Amino acid sequence: MEFTAQQIAAFLNGVIEGDASVKVSNFSKIEEGKPGTLTFLANPKYESFIYDTQASVVLVNNDFVPSQPLTTTLIKVPNAYAALAMLMGMVEQAKPKKTGIDSTAFIASSAQLGENPYVGNFAYIGENVKIGHNVKIYPQVYIGDNVNIGDNVTVYPHACIYDGCNLGSNLIIHAGAVIGADGFGFAPEGDGYKKIPQIGNVIIEDDVEIGANTTIDRAVMDSTIIRKGVKLDNLIQIAHNVEVGENTVMASQVGVAGSVKIGKHCMFGGQVGLAGHLKIGDNVTLGAQSGVISSIADNTTVLGSPSMPAKSYMRSSAIFSKLPDMYRTMGQLQREIEQLKEELNKNR
User: Fold this and answer.
1) What single DSSP character describes residue 30?
2) Helical (H) or strand (E) element with 107
3) 3 CA to centre of own chain
4) Can you list the domains of the chain with their CATH numbers?
5) Taking the CA of residue 251 as centre, how many other CA atoms within 13 Å lie in the half-sphere pointing to its CB?
6) How far is CA 65 from the centre of its chain?
7) What is the rounded CA–CA span in Å between residue 242 and residue 236?
8) What is the pLDDT of residues 206-240, one digit of tens each?
9) Which residues, including other chains, have CB under 8 Å from residue 61's CB and lie 6 or more apart?
10) Distance of CA 318 to the CA centre of its chain
11) CB 22 within 8 A of CB 5
């Protein structure tokens, strides 16, 4: 599909600066822009690329003022990144939609599917499963017995949803995700360990996205809960009885130990690790590789391992590289003090 800058600006309620008739048919990164593509500038550190980009149209924020001449057409909008997401969503919606049930899929006779389903090759849907409208189950997905799934859910290949889990509407579950596997529960017994049955489930509320190969364990009892609007990246581990608050986002390789309660609107960087039974408040930001071993209050930003308030960490990190010199200086001072003590003792 091809659109003019004028058509795009009208769709976004944006303001054009440049050639309104220029046409684009694809997207590009600003530093690799090509003629006939649309890109965006939201982060000021990329501004230098806008003066050389070959992209035909660039989305920019309303307050952007170029400091050099431009060869591209600008569309000014309140939020360039959000506008780009809107355009990409429109393109995604225009793609052909998969429908129908493949003859190789297994669907138990007691399962209920809503209107307009897609079930791909060799997918498995167990007994007493209830699936809403406009749900897409890609090839080789496993859905266990007594699972409930809402409307407008997409489950990509090789994802596994264990028995008894409850999933809301407007979800995206990427390839290889596992929802409802047993939590890591073992009791020491003699020279080994006895498995503790995990008899709870997983509840996922509406508007959640779960990345590829992310795992969410079922609870020992009750439920592991992922609240509305949560976004989980790839390769994340959520342990049993964890609760993740609304609109919290986590980057890749976060690991959350059992029974942690996480508040609303939190942001976790990559490879963050949380010890068990902690309470993380609302609006908490954990920098990448933070190691969290104690509970954290609302509206806090922490860094480091073990984690500490961000300002303290930054002050500490400023002297990390100086520690060897400080250690040598301290040793020298200690030797000088010992020599002074010896001199004082001689003069007594």
Assistant:
1) G
2) strand 106-107
3) 31
4) 3-94 (3.40.1390.10), 100-311 (2.160.10.10)
5) 12
6) 32
7) 13
8) 999 999 999 999 999 999 999 999 999 999 999 99
9) 41, 42, 76, 77, 78, 79, 80
10) 30
11) yes
Contacts for 88-92 with beta carbons within 8 Å, 24 or more apart?
Answer: 88/27, 90/11, 91/1
Q: How far is CA 114 from CA 43, 163, 234, in A?
A: 43, 19, 29
Give the burial class of 187: count Cβ atoms within 10 A of its Cβ; 0-12 exposed, 13-18 middle, 19 or more buried: exposed
- Identify the CA nearest to 275 among candidates 261, 287, 285: 261
Q: Which of 256, 259, 224 is nearest to 237 (CA)?
A: 256
CA angle 51, 85, 50 (to 5 degrees): 5
Please name the amino acid found at residue 209: E
pLDDT at 182 over 80: yes
For 238-260, give one letter per residue: b (16+ CB within 10 A) or e: bbbbbbbbbbbbbbbbbebbbbb
pTM for the structure as a whole: 0.84
Which tokens is 280 given? Answer: 């993380």
Q: Is the pLDDT of residue 1 over 80?
A: no
In Å, what is the CA distance from 137 to each residue of 108, 126, 203? Answer: 15, 13, 19
**Residues marked as catalytic:** 240
